[in-house]
Amino acid sequence: MMLFSCLSASAIVRAGECYAFLEGDTLRIGNSRIERKALWNNGHIITLSVTDKSSGKTIVSAGKNPDFNVNREKPSGGKLTVRQLPGDGIRPSRMVATASYRLGNLEVERDYRLYDRVPAIATDTRMRGTLDGVSEKETDAADRKNIEHAADMKVKPVTLLLDRLDLRGNHWHGHAVEFRDITDWNNNLVDRRDFISYRKTNHRGNILIVTDGADKGGFIFLKEAPCSGVQLAYKGADFISDFGSFMVTGLGIDSRDISADKWTSAYSSVLCTFGDGELSALKALRDYQKQCRILDANRDEMVMMNTWGDRSQDAKVNEAFCLAELDKAARLGISLFQIDDGWQSGKSPNSAVASGSFKDIYANAAYWSPDPQKYPRGLKPIVDRGRELGIEIGLWFNPSVQNDFADWEKDAATITGLWKEYGIRMFKIDGLTVTSKRGEENLRKLFDKVLEETGNEVMFNLDATASRRGGYHFFNEYGNVFLENRYTDWGNYYPYQTLRNLWQLSRYVPAERLQIEFLNKWRNSDKYPDDRFAPGNYSFEYVFATSMAGQPLAWMEAGNLPEEAFDIFPTVEGYRKIQHDFHKGTILPIGEEPSGSSWTGFQSIISPSEGYLLVYREDNPEETHHVSTWLENGVRIELTPVLGNAKKFKVTTGPGGTIPVTIGKRNDFALYRYRLK
């Protein structure tokens, strides 16, 4: 780690292509893609302008208010420190410029985090001391009185702000994007609200995209926090717009979380800039999101099988069952076999064979040892057989929940021990309920300790199906997201609906971080009488293909599959050969929203001249359809078939980047590699 300090120096401090320096009373932070210029204000900076260097557009701020606001104290003791942090296999190298200062009895450290060639500046905030005067919940717009005088227009400023831009102009167009997890209960996971900024208005969501209606440039605020409805100390809003002022609010802490003896972190915020058009905005956002965790081909890519999807719960899992499943999983092309709840001696509340609990787990010293009745030789025979077949073994794990994860060190030691004994690298983390800052901190300590002890080899599969968890924009550095549980037993699995959830999320969340299920389409056909979109009406190859833009999850027991199911092996094998290359690109939705009868799909943009197109013809009568893409109008491209019902052809794109795609059968797909000619 390289460390530089400056109090009022004018020397430019660089780390890679990133830089941060004081020029008189002005702080400049940036890289080759973005620059933020601010009044130093003793460390309590006030943004003056933000420049998108790719387009050359600069957004000028009125420069009246500090970006960060928690009290009305004057700043003192400002100091700027710049560090270059090396990559560690999880996070790439980055520059961190820290502004340290005091606001009365409160110490503040604001880390401005930048990566080479990424048009984003992330801000991580820590506080220590005393935080007084926390604001109450924001006044609802419906409770405000009529405006008859200029004084009536003034609204009391928000106290708690993570970041803000006070911009000139009256033509700011925005949209706030709110996300939902708790997917056992939610099947509509993305809500977008469009607006023209007017008087003070609250917005919910993790993402705010704002465009200048006059010259089309813009910026993005990303709030790195759980979904709005489950955030800590939540007061009903994540963003606030007020004509040209845009603010990030909701720190995830209150005054009780702050003390003089330790640093407490707020939620982080990220500022991205973009040029003209939605693609520019989405690529800027994705450029940053891909820095949160390095996508390692040998660790992060997978085609997983988990047998819980056939609803046997823990009734079947034992050595003989797992060995038989592994043999059949290999015939499908599976790369990782995950043993869910039931491998351990202790019993959870989800057990089908005995009542159990998630509380006081360590009262049973053998809770996380392999069940000696089910696995008399431990897990070694399973791991060894998997290794022979080229399949890794993963495990389900539920941290001890009582007292805000107070037993996090025991949990970390348990996971590390399983890694040391069996070489297990993937752990599904389930049963979380994070209701306090202390719980969040302890959970992070658990994850960090495991990564430290295992040299960053272990990866966590974070369940998003219930309770108060991390969602899509928090804990991203630790692994991927187990998105949803759907079961043919309950008649709630529809391939097009799972595809729709992935399609909607992929505009704002990296698809490669989402684990997407596909089920045994032959089971429980009686649960779908006369249903056009029943799983049984699709080929098994197509059902698998609906998960390919994400990380596929075979949510089933291989032993319950008919022999014809194993015919998909060539498709799975072919997919695994290009999986990492596909996921390296910026994956965005194309075509129409999946409805069961649409033409839909995904585009992976690897470079301006090449990428992949994954197109689905759902139950639609058209054999040829003009599919909208993110390509420009009038470019000549060559499409080479990779998988599915695809044939090589060349074409010139039409308006909206449309391409005529022919797929001869309903409910079929085509995966192409494209190159501009």
Layout of strands and helices, then pairs:
Layout (H helix, E strand, L loop, with lengths): L1 E5 L6 E3 L2 E6 L2 E5 L3 E6 L6 E7 L4 E4 L14 E11 L8 E10 L2 E9 L5 E10 L31 E6 L5 E8 L10 E7 L4 E3 L3 E6 L5 E7 L14 E4 L2 E5 L14 E2 L2 E7 L3 H12 L14 E3 L12 H14 L3 E4 L40 H10 L2 E6 L4 H4 L2 H15 L3 E4 L7 H17 L5 E5 L15 E4 L12 H11 L8 E5 L21 H6 L5 E5 L13 H16 L1 E6 L7 E9 L2 E8 L6 E4 L8 E9 L4 E4 L6 E4 L5 E9 L1
Parallel strand pairs: 22-23, 22-29, 23-24, 24-25, 25-26, 26-27, 27-28, 28-29
Antiparallel strand pairs: 1-8, 2-3, 3-4, 4-5, 5-6, 6-7, 8-9, 9-10, 10-11, 11-20, 11-21, 12-19, 13-14, 13-16, 15-18, 16-17, 17-21, 18-19, 30-31, 31-32, 32-37, 33-36, 34-35, 34-37
Helix pairs in contact: 2-3, 5-6
Question: What this model shows, in words?
Answer:
16% of the residues lie in helices and 32% in strands. It has 677 residues and is an alpha+beta fold. Among the domains are: 2-142 and 153-289, Beta-galactosidase, Chain A, domain 5 (Distorted Sandwich); 590-676. The strands form six sheets. Strands 1, 8, 9, 10, 11, 13, 14, 16, 17, 20 and 21 form an eleven-stranded antiparallel β-sheet that branches. β27, α7 and β28 (514-518) form a beta-alpha-beta unit. α2 packs parallel to α3 and α5 (408-422) runs parallel beside α6. It is globular. The model has no long low-confidence stretch (mean pLDDT 94).
CATH-defined fold name of the domain at 2-142 and 153-289:
Beta-galactosidase, Chain A, domain 5
The separation of the N and C termini measures: 44 Å
Computed CA radius of gyration, to the nearest angstrom = 26 Å
Residue stretches low in confidence (pLDDT < 50, at least 5 long) are: none
State the secondary-structure class: alpha+beta
Secondary structure tally: strands: 37
Report the sheet-strand fraction: 25-35%
Largest sheet: 11 strands, antiparallel
Overall, the morphology is globular
CATH architecture of the domain at 2-142 and 153-289: Distorted Sandwich
CATH class of the domain at 2-142 and 153-289: Mainly Beta
**Helical region count?**
9
Oligomerization: single chain
**Which percent bin holds the helix content?**
10-25%
What average pLDDT do the residues reach?
Answer: 94
